[in-house]
Amino acid sequence: MRLAGIVLLHYNACLHVVLLKQQLLQQLQGSWQVFSHPACNSDLSSSAFHLFQHLKRSLVGKHFPNDDNIQTDGTHRLTPCSGGGFIRHRIQNLVLRYGTCFSFGGFYVER
């Protein structure tokens, strides 16, 4: 299935966010297509989901005296994850999975 023009993908968006976007798209009078994909699909969770699970585990039992210390520690812990490898891997997986969806007319195929 080849799509022309602008295609909007509600990637890992919660339903209330998707509904607001759909209202806006209706105002654009159909000039944009929406790629049909279930909202909040756990199999296609964003890199942020995986990233924050690791962050959460690393913070168990930690106590911070103020917000500045929290921000500094969080930034320090997130910096290695922001490197190209982690994000690049997630984007490559996204491209492969959505290539499968496009080839099957918008339907996601489970492994």
From TrEMBL:
<keyword id="KW-0732">Signal</keyword>
<dbReference type="InterPro" id="IPR036397">
    <property type="entry name" value="RNaseH_sf"/>
</dbReference>
<protein>
    <recommendedName>
        <fullName>Secreted protein</fullName>
    </recommendedName>
</protein>
<feature type="signal peptide">
    <location>
        <begin position="1"/>
        <end position="20"/>
    </location>
</feature>
<dbReference type="GO" id="GO:0003676">
    <property type="term" value="F:nucleic acid binding"/>
</dbReference>
<dbReference type="InterPro" id="IPR052709">
    <property type="entry name" value="Transposase-MT_Hybrid"/>
</dbReference>
